[in-house]
Amino acid sequence: MTALEKYYNKFNEEHRLDTRHGTVEFTTTLKYIHDFIPADKKISILDVGAGTGKYSVALSREGHTVTAVELVKRNLDVLEAKHEKVNCWQGNAMDLHFLKDATFDITLLFGPLYHLHTKEEMLTAFSEAKRVTKKGGYIFAAYVMNDYSIITYCFKQNHALEVVQNKKITDDWHTIASEDELYTYLRLEDIDELNRQTSLQRVKIFAADGPSDYIRRELNAMDEQTFQLFMQYHLSTCERPELLGASSHLVDVLQN
């Protein structure tokens, strides 16, 4: 069993997007997915790194044809136990050989890029996503952001001295990806470079959760009316360039 599988066997992925800060991420991301689905049309969607199927199930219930690929068997078992109309596969984002070329209108990469440690691995995942996505279709690629990790782990959780002493960051505070870490954290310039090498064209980029991960306790304490006001604020600011890099998650919308 890999370290990733051990992690997700303990982590409650099913609950993550039901929390207040998870609701921000899910509501925002689903809103943008809907922006790229033509009105009154049912499309074919691939969810790579589907977890326990939060997005897969929601989109399937709207009548879309959804295929879910998930590496971790425990997560896949939870998804399959829901008995939804989702085609499920256990598989790796870097090898989708079981899926045909140019099949999907939209491909979601909402997890794999968090856990791939090299540019070559990420480019392989993009190559597979491009292959199975129709020409002119869209790939939604999600990332965990570098400065969110620095602010929260190094300073909020007080690990800065440890990180510096163990040479886990560069002199300009960019985290160094390694196989013994579960996550890879990127900056906007890293994402731009990946796009350049994949020849995918950005249509939109947005902060899936904005400041919500920094204020989890405050979000949980809000009454529902105030939380809805926060959602209005977030949705009105989640594309602002000066705020993007500080979000915990970004989603890049790319056209094939």
Helix content: 40-55%
| Multimeric state | single chain
Order of helices and strands: HHHEHEHEEHHEHHEHEHHHE
Rg to the nearest angstrom? 18 Å
Main sheet: strands, sense, barrel: 8 strands, mixed
The proportion of strand residues reads 15-25%
| Unreliable stretches | none
Commentary on this structure:
The protein is α/β, with parallel strands linked by helices. It is built from 13 helices and 8 strands. The protein has helices at 3-10, 13-16, 20-35, 54-61, 73-80, 112-115, 119-132, 146-156, 160-165, 188-198, 216-221, 224-237, 241-244; strands spanning 44-48, 65-70, 86-90, 104-109, 133-145, 185-186, 201-207, 249-255. Strands 1, 2, 3, 4, 5, 6, 7 and 8 form an 8-stranded mixed β-sheet that branches. It is globular, with a radius of gyration of 18 Å.
Short description:
It contains 13 helices and 8 strands. The protein is α/β, with parallel strands linked by helices and 256 residues long.
From the structure above, extract its key features.
256 residues; alpha/beta; eight-stranded mixed β-sheet; 13 helices; 45% helix; globular
Question: What is the strand and helix layout of this fold?
Answer:
Elements (H helix, E strand, L loop, with lengths): L2 H8 L2 H4 L3 H16 L8 E5 L5 H8 L3 E6 L2 H8 L5 E5 L13 E6 L2 H4 L3 H14 E13 H11 L3 H6 L19 E2 L1 H11 L2 E7 L8 H6 L2 H14 L3 H4 L4 E7 L1
Parallel strand pairs: 1-2, 1-4, 2-3, 4-5, 5-6
Antiparallel strand pairs: 5-8, 7-8
